[in-house]
Q: What sequence folds into this?
């Protein structure tokens, strides 16, 4: 009965409320003959205004696991979501797998499985593939970006964290899921953004130091081959290729094994889309189109400046950046 009047949302959400119990009062009732009777009224449960929720607090895992009561009518995905909320990861993963066995497109189960694997130290490659599958099903939805955000946190990919946090906040179906983004994930995204800024400053300082007096003494130190390229665009394309060229080859090979189609890679190309921004593409196409198979070009939006930042713009690029980027930490295999 307590939950009937709670706010409805397009997506599931958690909104903690402290519940205060006020004991009933006691009074002495009149008796017959000798003695009297003590009566106690019904206790009251008091909750705060639902429109003014309290701030986030760490979960008391032991208390949560000891007191949770899951409805018998809950679906497998809902059951998994409840187990995930109290950090009972093996039970959550089993429930999500059961749900996906019945419906491979169950978005709640896909999001939950990716999160459970990422948070529990499970198979991060599977977690990434699960989040990618969800993004393919609903590229503009909150759940796919949140799932990928959690995987990025697990592999310590700050650029990926920053990108998917912003995209999740702009999702068409965010609804009350923003509470989880604000309370649980925003602090982690802000930390990632801070590390990105610090790395950018360090790179800028290193560049300035290289041009300062006395830098000639460093002439025997190997130089970045991309620095020899003429113009920002050519330098940016060189850096992207250095980080991701091998990864695109590995991705095409994995894709071929998965789809039973031979793929060939085209030449890298870059196109200016606005001031300081390039769209860099690596074509990935079936060798024999007559035998079927779709185009899987990988595309990144590259921001130029003191720090070159590569933003994956489609599923292929996200997968390559997460698993095969030579310039960042990669997921465990």
A:
């Amino acid at each position: 009965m307590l939950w009937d009047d709670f706010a409805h949302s397009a997506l599931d959400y958690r909104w903690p409320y402290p519940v205060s119990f006020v004991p009933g009062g006691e009074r002495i009732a009149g008796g017959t003959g000798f003695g009297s009777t003590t009566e106690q009224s019904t206790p009251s449960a008091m909750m705060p205004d639902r429109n003014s929720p309290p701030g986030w607090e760490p979960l008391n895992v032991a208390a949560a696991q000891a007191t949770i009561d899951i409805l018998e009518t809950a679906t497998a995905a809902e059951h998994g979501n409840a187990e995930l909320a109290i950090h009972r990861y093996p039970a959550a993963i089993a429930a999500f797998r059961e749900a996906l066995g019945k419906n491979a497109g169950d978005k709640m189960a896909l999001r939950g499985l990716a999160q459970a694997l990422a948070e529990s130290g499970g198979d991060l490659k599977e977690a990434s593939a699960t989040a990618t599958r969800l993004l393919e099903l609903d590229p503009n939805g909150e759940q796919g970006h949140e799932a990928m955000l959690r995987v990025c946190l697990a592999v310590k990919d700050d650029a990926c964290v920053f990108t998917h946090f912003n995209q999740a906040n702009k999702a068409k179906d965010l609804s009350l899921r923003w509470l989880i983004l604000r309370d649980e994930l925003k602090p982690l995204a802000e930390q990632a953004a801070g590390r990105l800024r610090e790395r950018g400053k360090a790179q800028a300082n290193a560049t300035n130091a290289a041009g300062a007096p006395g830098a000639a003494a460093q002439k025997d130190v190997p130089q970045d081959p991309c620095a020899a390229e003429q113009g920002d665009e050519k330098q940016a394309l060189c850096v992207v290729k250095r980080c991701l060229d091998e990864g695109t080859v590995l991705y095409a090979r994995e894709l071929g094994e998965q789809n039973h189609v031979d793929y060939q890679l085209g030449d890298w190309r870059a196109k200016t889309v606005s001031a300081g921004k390039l769209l860099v593409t690596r074509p990935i196409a079936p060798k024999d189109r007559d035998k079927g198979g779709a185009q899987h070009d990988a595309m990144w939006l590259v921001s130029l400046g003191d720090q070159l930042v590569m933003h994956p713009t489609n599923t292929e690029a996200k997968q390559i950046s997460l698993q095969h980027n030579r310039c960042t930490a990669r997921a465990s295999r």
